Amino acid sequence: MADAELVVEAAGPVATVVIHNPARRNAMTPYMWRQLPPILDRLEADPAVRALVLTGAGDAFCAGADLGDLDELLAAGDGSIAVAAEERLASFAKPTIAAVRGACVGGGCQLAVACDLRIAAVDARFGVPPARLGLVYPAPTTRRLTRLIGPSAAKFLLFTAELIDAERALRIGLADEVVPATALDARVDEITTAIAERSPISVAAAKEIVDDRAGPARIAWWHRKVAESGEAREGIAAVRERRTPRFAWTPPD
């Protein structure tokens, strides 16, 4: 294994992408930012994958980004490889969960916010440090953060660059649940197991609609697919027969 890379682990219907750069508390290097979109393309195309977990190796989620060449960073602006990776993660068609322990700062917070859900260990710490560095946080990233936690909370993080603990992250909506550090993996397993057992057509449609990526024509398409797939008949039959439903729909290529 390389010192700094993204590692993909698969367990049944759940794929886990591990941010692995332990020497720097899992800071994202340029190579790692470039790794992420093709990894996501492959996992999205795999019908066996029903959910994705993003986490960090060891006791940190991700302590930020390797800033690399400053002139290159300043010239890239919103066209940076970090923003491209974030946008690809946000558009991933299947449910995504950030399992957060320890530092979740800068580029790490950027990735966590791009996930659908964030489950945090009680020792998690969140922060957005560009104001401390004299940088402008990318506009797509800023808007995504603001949609998630609201303007006031976003401004607090952006203006002060302070770290906040997991309980405060939970109060402002940056975390969805906070659990003991020893229980994080088990809780994430519970959530992904539940998602994997649900109707993939229902989950996929819900994600598009919640993310405001489905117009009237697309919503009508989803309703047609429900009728054609037989998923609703299977789900209702399973409830009546008190058994686990056997959902088999897979998205078209």
Automatic annotation (TrEMBL):
GO molecular function ontology, one term from the record: catalytic activity
GO terms of biological process kind: fatty acid beta-oxidation
Family statement: Belongs to the enoyl-CoA hydratase/isomerase family.
CDD domains on file: crotonase-like (cd06558)
Source species, domain of life: Bacteria
Full protein name: Enoyl-CoA hydratase/carnithine racemase
InterPro entries on file: ClpP/crotonase-like_dom_sf (IPR029045), Enoyl-CoA_hyd/isom_CS (IPR018376), Enoyl-CoA_hydra/iso (IPR001753)
